[in-house]
Structure of VWA domain-containing protein:
Amino acid sequence: MKLLITLFCALGLSIQTYAQQDAPSPILFIYDASGSMWGQLDGKTKKEIASEVLATSVSNLPENQNIGLVTYGHRTKGDCDDVEFMVDITNNSKEKVKNAVIGINPLGRTPLARSATMAINSLKERNTKATIILITDGIESCDGNICDVVTKAKTDGIDFKLHIVGFGLKESETEQLKCAANAGDGKYYDASDASGLGDVLAEATTETVDDPSDNFSIYAVKNGKPVDAWIKVVKAGTNDEIDGARTYRDTGWVYLPPGKYDMIIKPLESTKIKGTTVSIESIKDKIGHQTVSFDGGKINLTTLNNNEGWDCTSKVKTQKGEVVGGSRTYGKPKIIELNPGVYDIEVMALKIKGLKNKFIIEDVTVEATKTVDVSHNFQSGIAMIGVKSGDVLVDAVVSIKTKETGENVAGSRTYTSDSSNPREFMLNPGVYEVKVSAVKKEYAGKKETFTIEVKKGETVTKIISF
């Protein structure tokens, strides 16, 4: 009997221990209820947007997730001490948090440092850890520095992760907030609308204090400035995802066990450059870093006809034939931005007919941050084909094919207007066979075939008489 009791006790203890380990650490929201939350974005107040998005985020949390709520600025105007613990971190009711947020009336100031102090002190008093997520649409408006508060708390050994969401803030207002998030082992997120707020809260609520500490940072730049980029890390040579993040124009972090990985990075703004993949290695007990530049190279494409600027279409292809760029030149030099690599450029001259109105410029090497000049000069001449009967202009169909291959390259009608009879054809230099056939009944059966030679930069005229 003692043996059975002992076994049951041991089993009960192991189940209890497992349940405790399985329950996630609390998430504590610090919610902005300052007067500026009545400001509008896309026709709705920031208060409405934030409360709706936060309610959705809370609903998506695990059932066994404890959720607390600290609010500031909701009771008194101008009071820097207006900070309240509205929902304790021992709470496991999602409805309690959602109802509390909906009922908040924004009024006051933005005491970020004091709000963070209240939240962090609650963890110290309970000797527990938590993920703190601060949502603010403004900067500190009282006598405090949230970065100093968080830095000191970490020095004192308080265990927490702090994420900060700047809702509709300007870049110039984020320095102190980024400092605090970094000191709190978390991230600073920028959200400019409801969709952006939903995205960052979805990520912030999954990047919790229970996760291993991030040990690999990624910074993405273009032309020397940070860009928002999406990151996915997979085991080297596989599609097995290990971790992921976004940079939000700042440093993104992931956790990688020791080993070799492929890091897939795609820019989300400011560039037409496709993403890239780099090989990295995570080393035990070391913080890794990778700066990724999306600086591409450039092709300065110039298209000419008889040494003058000419409108052309262009396609830039990889060595495997994949089209990765291109544009119309409109007769002026055209900059095409690409990933570094070797490309073929297909250019086609507009208006020019013949066998040489398309050309492929092969093996163009593009290097990062450099511009390579590429040009092609087409050649053409003019053939003027007209049809008359005495002094009367005759409507006729004109068909032109090359003498060399017999391929039809141009055709049109002369009609009976001085503006189209003779009809102008712009052709590559060469010898052509021209067939002219009358259209009107009074000239039924009238036709003529002849040969002309078109020379570069010259005009040849042929008037047929029926």
User: Anything to note?
Assistant: The chain has four domains: 23-204, 216-293, 297-378, 381-465.
